Amino acid sequence: MSMHKNTIKKLKTYSLTFIFCFFISFMMSLFLIYPPKEYSANEKRVLQPLPKFTLENFLNGSLVKDFEKYLSDNFAWRDFFVGMDAYCNLAIGKNGSNGIYKGKDGYLIRKPVEENMQNISQNMDKLAEFAEKTGSNLDLIIIPSTGFTMQDKLPMLHEQFTDDVILKEVKKMKSQKINLIDLRDAFFNNKGVDQIYYKTDHHLTSKGTYLVYLEHCMKKSITPIPIKRFSVENHENFFGTAYSKSALWFAKPDIIQIFEMADSPKFEVTISDSDDKSKTANTLFFKEHLNKDDKYPVFLDGNHSFVKIINPNLNEGKLLLIKDSFGQCLAPFLANHYREIDMVDPRYYKHHISDLLEKGHSQDVLLVYGLEDFVTDLSLHRLK
Amino acid sequence: MVFSSILFLFLFLPLVLFIYYITPRKCRNLFLFIVSLIFYCWGEPTYIFIMLFSTISDYIHGILIDKFRKNKTVAKALMISAVVINLVTLCYFKYSNFLLSIFKCIPAFSSISLPQIALPLGISFYTFQTMSYSIDVYRGDAPVQKNIISFGAFVVLFPQLIAGPIVRYQDIAYQLDHRKETLAEFTKGIKLFLIGLSKKVLLANQMGILWDTLRSTTEKNGILGCWIGIIAYSMQIYFDFSGYSDMACGLGNMLGFEFLKNFNYPYISKSLTEFWRRWHISLGTLFKEYVYIPLGGNRKGPKRQLFNLMIVWFLTGLWHGANWNYVMWGVYYGIILIAEKLFLIKFLEKLPAVLRHIYSLFFAVTGFVIFFFEDTHKLVLYLKSLFFFDNGLISVNALNIFLANLPLIGISAIACTPVMSKLYYKVKSHRLYWIAESSILTILMLLCTASLVSQSYNPFLYFRF
């Protein structure tokens, strides 16, 4: 009897010791047992491989850094712990701890970018220089951020979205050759009717992109194709980048829509990467991506440095489309009005972009950038 | 290697604990010596020799001082030699840039180029420890250590190696060779370690993020926003440092050592004299025992005492870093503490306790502004934004950030006081108390793990190329 009592007393006194020792050694064993992973679907990045020991990388500290990264990349049940941290932060009132706000109606909204006027003015200078040098008319579309347009979906406590200030500044800085297409009114008028942005991704939905297309058509006096002429395909279970970043794993997925015309022309698409390897296709929609974790690349196969789209039904019209990832969804609409679209992503394209323009011809140039990229990304210096 | 990392928690620690306890007792110091060197090497492979040099130097000095104890002059000379070697090492690696940059201000020397010397990890801690050993042996306060492994283990002992507490040899001399590891001590160590880890990971890191966010918009925050920022920093530095000390003491317990307490709720002080009795106690003790008292302390008249105090505070400031702001910070405390000694304490004692708390917190927090900014221009700018209404009361953004962090600030504020500790002792005798204790600490352990794993979570926004 007394021995039994003694055991219970010990159990009480040392329960934590047992839990602690078990936990640290158990997590260590899991790490040693599980084979290292190469790629994380949630983070969309290649994980750190086991670094090789050399005296040099030991002494310069890179071995230490890489090894610690390897260890945390391969920590067992990583997604569980990351999600736990995200939900705990949310519970304690720190909405937005991973850079993403959990908004109303399932919206996961990126925190506002820091307004960096120096970057903006540098980008605007490059654009002006480019328009001047090539003699082309440059249309500029800057897509407002989700948090700005969908202000009513933001959580109660959030940092201010300064898209208005930034766009005002852009308007002030732009040269005469640049024509800014302002989307704000169109977005505000339609946001009650259609879902303009994805809930789990920072991109525009196909409906939202159609609004951009309408605005562009209006500015260029093109007759847009009415929305009824498209047949809409719905694909479920789309978890975007905001979802991955937030680690709020219980969020509900989006539906990704594809607007395709029944009598769509047989496009000739050539896709090249920065290493100059290229492939061809006859469609603007790469549906094999719909079965993968990342579904947004269904539009023109995701980010590539250069894509050429030929519409064989038309005889004329050429557009240089300079874009970030927002452009992939817009290009399929525009492809109905130009015989040739050169779509280039300055973040990956390594050659001079002005070489894509035919000398002596005035040509349409359209630049489509999300506001966040326009403020933070400086690869527009490639506009030479 | 830092304690609050996945590498330490889930690879180094389990392996070290396991091997330590299967190692025979007489080999444990050797084992600790080796793993501590690995621990140090991990972050600082090149400078390990300086630490070993300092260890060997004081080991030899200790033996020689003991041998020539009867010859006072020789013993004293040896003690001075040990001190000089340590101070020269410290000065060369920590202060040469700073000293040369002062020389540079003299026109004749303006052409000297500053050498690029990186600060060896933990040098301010281990040089003081080895130095205190030689002095203790000279004074007869500690026995000489003839076993180089035991002495080496004392210097490089990984729990306290990088950020203290500064363990004096006389405090653990006996434990080095005669400690008894027990399960009760081990359990106590785990509790302390988990509390320290939580302070660091769950509070200090979060307060750090808040401070960084508010600091980046100093000129827009408004006066309240800036105060919230510096209060967040004051909490960050306290939780960071005291959390580290708790972890060190906890790890010490797990290995059978007992280190002295380094922090004792400094933010509940009613005067700054009290604040420094509660903040970084091991450093205060060191300066008192090895600088203030040898200089004569208060035994040589009030004028000399004030001079001694000023020297101590100048050096305390300088010890924290090789830059003017640390010196200023030390002198700032020197002035306040002298004022308290002369008249302020008597005046303060007449005030209600609330006002005395406000007084202490105000000067401690303001002091941390001086402590933080190495760039004088930024320092002045921040001080200005704390005391002038140029930018309004509080900006919308600062208010939102504050409100989102309010629960955490509340928890942090409570954690700065002994409330939880008092509650702990009150319920300790309850029948079911052990369930509450174990589950709370287990939850904290899981939360720390989640937070550490989350720090490395870094989704790439664009498709990989």
Describe the secondary-structure layout.
The complex is a heterodimer of chains A (384) and B (465).
Chain A: H1 2-33, E1 39-40, E2 45-46, H2 55-59, H3 62-73, H4 78-91, E3 100-102, E4 108-110, H5 117-134, E5 137-143, H6 146-149, H7 163-173, E6 178-181, H8 184-190, H9 206-220, E7 230-238, H10 241-246, E8 254-261, E9 268-272, E10 278-281, E11 306-310, E12 318-323, H11 327-334, E13 340-344, E14 364-370, H12 371-376
Parallel strand pairs in A: 5-6, 5-14, 12-13, 12-14
Antiparallel strand pairs in A: 1-2, 3-4, 7-8, 9-10, 9-11, 11-13
Helix pairs in contact in A: 5-7, 9-11
Chain B: H1 6-22, H2 28-43, H3 48-67, H4 72-103, H5 123-139, H6 148-156, H7 158-161, H8 169-178, H9 183-215, H10 223-254, H11 272-278, H12 281-292, H13 302-320, H14 324-348, H15 353-372, H16 376-387, H17 396-415, H18 419-427, H19 433-455
Helix pairs in contact in B: 2-6, 3-4, 3-5, 3-6, 4-5, 6-8, 9-10, 9-17, 9-19, 10-15, 10-16, 10-17, 12-13, 13-14, 14-15
- What are the secondary-structure elements of chain B, in order, as H or E? HHHHHHHHHHHHHHHHHHH
What is the count of β-strands of chain A?
14
Structural class of chain A: alpha/beta
- β-strand percent of chain B reads under 5%
Q: Helix/strand/pairing class of chain B, anyone?
A: mainly alpha
Multimerization status: heterodimer
Number of helices of chain B: 19
Helix fraction bin of chain A: 25-40%
Radius of gyration of chain B: 24 Å
Q: Extract low-pLDDT stretches of chain A.
A: none
Percent helix range of chain B: over 70%
What is the ordering of alpha helices and beta strands of chain A?
HEEHHHEEHEHHEHHEHEEEEEHEEH
| Strand arrangement across the biggest beta sheet of chain A | 6-5-14-12-13-11-9-10
Q: How many separate domains of chain A?
A: 2
Q: How far is the N terminus from the C terminus of chain A? A: 88 Å
Give the termini separation of chain B. Answer: 33 Å
Percent strand of chain A equals 15-25%
Shape of chain B: globular
